[in-house]
Specification:
The complex is a heterodimer of chains A (289) and B (234). Chain A is mainly beta. Chain A has two domains: 3-173, no CATH class; 175-288, Beta Barrel (Cyclophilin). Chain A has three helices and 21 strands. Chain A has a seven-stranded antiparallel beta sheet, with no helix packed on it. In chain A, strand 17 and strand 18 form a beta hairpin. In chain A, 51% of the residues are buried. Chain B is of the alpha+beta class and 234 residues long. In chain B, the strands form three sheets. Chain B has an eight-stranded mixed beta sheet with strand order 13-10-11-8-7-14-6-15. In chain B, strands 1-2-3-5-4 form a five-stranded antiparallel beta sheet. Chain B folds into two domains: 2-76, Gyrase A, domain 2, CATH 3.30.1360.40; 88-233, Cyclophilin (Beta Barrel). The longest helix of chain B has 10 residues, at 35-44. Classes of the chains: A mainly beta (289), B alpha+beta (234). The interface between A and B is large, with 33 and 38 residues.
Chain lengths: 289, 234
Amino acid sequence: MTTGRLIIRAPGGMTTIQDAGRIGSAFFAFPRCGAMDGQSAGLANVLVRNDRDAPVLECTLVAPRIEFQTHGCFALTGADFGWRLDGRPVERNRVIEVAAGSLLEGGKATGGLRGYIAIAGKWLVERPLGSASSHVVAGLGANQGQPLRAGFELEWEQPETQPGTVELVISPGRRAKNVIRTVRGPEFEWLEEESKQLLLEKTYRVSPTSNRMGARLAGPPLSVGGKTLPASVPVLPGMIQLTPSGQAIVVLQDGQTTGGYPRIGYVPRSELDAFNQIMIGDPFRFVLL
Amino acid sequence: MSRSLRLNDMNFEISTYAEEFALLRPGETASAAPLPWLGRAILEANLAGLQDVIATEGEICLIWARGQKEAVLSQLEDRSFGWTSHVRTWSLPVWFEPHDDWKLVCKATGLSREQVISQLLDGRYPVAMLGFLPGFVYLHGLDESLHVARKATPTTQIKERTLAIGGKYLGLYSLPTPAGWHAIGRVPVSVLDMNRIPPVCLSPGDVLQLKQVNEREYEQLLGSSLETFQESDE
């Protein structure tokens, strides 16, 4: 077995190790975590012939700078970071082979917020409670759950055969990214009639105070007429909670497993992938599924 | 879409959302077994297709793998999980540290710090549920005279292993996180061990009692195992 290795030279906006998430521990209040855009992460893995749910690097807003210290085979998916390999542009959604000493870098994300890097082979990272996904608050996952810093070294077992060149053509306007399909949440009917209309007709934006735990929405405030839940209730990624101030919060991958706010909507998994690619401050609308 | 399910000889109303998860709520009769206990039993039954269970006092949430809704719900139909009165009791050492939140607690309850502590030491606190974030434990049994509404705005970072009052609950924060509850004490042992399965060693139904220690004793006990403080297993 030979080992591949890369080193993070600059971490970019926020780069973490994520996989399909930590399954089976929600009862003990462990959030699922995992890739914010699971479809793009899975696609990167499939391209390099890894397990679809294997760990990837998740890049946020600004690309990291990565030096390959051995040869390797990788794929880039998700947002366009203007990736360059040794100064030359590289395309997303295809398999790329690199020699030792190559430098991968990029700029600011466009056409999305998050990008994924899959590298062929079995990653030599910790998988506590069955997952490499980083959970910052609990210090759980690969790299003790923390975002990667300059100097972090990632190692993997090189596959016996390299995956070979594959290129995928993703048709651009496959779906409108500024419309998020949602279903009624358990407390949707608590919304005043006017609020129901606002939620489904007006434009909202993801506020800059959002993070992997939750997306705070900026837009017309909503009201349930002061109704409150008598006790905490289950929540999961995709749940739209309404805070007493009238601001809605979409619970995301690292969010808590119970909460005390009315759950007015739910963004299904595949739609949450698209929602998590919406750039901070860009307008979008909810429509009912 | 709503339907019902018979589980542990009770009717549950099931609401499913986007074919991805369901919420189970008990029908007309109150459950003999608390829902968090039932949630744990469902989790341990390892139902094919079921990924996660979240259980609060009023709802059980079942999250399944894509396309596994019917498989999961059919495995539950007419199931019965034995509710045993197996109770584990723990005597948990607490150092009632001089935290700023005490001012609020004394003001809201109209009691002195010593009166609050004495009242707390008299209580028995059954684990109500697990939730919020890893290692957070909701405890029942807080005397009504000690109920203090949660802070309007969650403040600062609470220290790990902090005992706190939030509304009608006593709560245990295992991790340093922002907190909306009132900090009253520190516990020298952790109920959270992320290297084992399950990662939280308290379960709904377990009972905690509090034993006061001073700062020096607290420091000596740091790092001990929770098992040391188990009183009974009956």
